[in-house]
Amino acid sequence: MTELDNIGNKLRSLRQARKISIKKMADTSGVSSSLISQIEHGRVSPSLNTLKKILDAMGETVISLVQQNSAESPMKGLIKREDRMTVTVAPGLYYEVLSAPNKSYSMFISYLSPDAGTEDFFIHEGIESGIMLKGKIELQLGDSTLILEEGDSITHSSTIPHKWRNLGNEVAIGIWVVCPPSF
Length: 183
Known about the structure:
- By secondary structure, the chain is an alpha+beta fold.
- The protein has two domains: 3-60, 434 Repressor (Amino-terminal Domain) (Orthogonal Bundle); 81-179, Jelly Rolls.
- The protein has helices at residues 3-17, 22-29, 33-40, 48-57, 62-67; strands spanning 86-90, 93-97, 106-112, 127-134, 136-141, 144-149, 153-157, 162-166, 172-179.
- The chain has a six-stranded antiparallel sheet with strand order 1-2-3-9-4-7.
- Helix 2 (22-29) packs across helix 4 (48-57).
- The chain is globular, with a radius of gyration of 17 Å.
């Protein structure tokens, strides 16, 4: 089973557990019924914004979707390197989840390939902070364009539209915290 099939299956399971029809989910999320069906059946890969719209309509986050059915560690806050969950967000962008499931924040390492970036602006509740460990990215934050390089950090309101892209020739790596865990 591919990651794409798995996301679709998890979305369908969540929706059905809440006894929500595809039509109702479409009305609530603003995503068409046909696209939801195609995602649930693993025929298409949702963009991060589309996935967030669907999950927001169910009161879930991307990380909670990935962490479903994960084995619980006896030390609930301990995540060993080899046990990190990986989330492919978009082509050339994936996250390793560093935080155990909680309602306060989510923390992850982002890996952004050269020339990769997010197409759409993200807007969500809360605040986020990050530090660049390697590479150079362009962060569009509202009307401002910022360049973050190794060692630079930033904190901003997540309600400001934001998107980013890798400006370098190497994978850009950063650690990010989002509070509350809206991602």
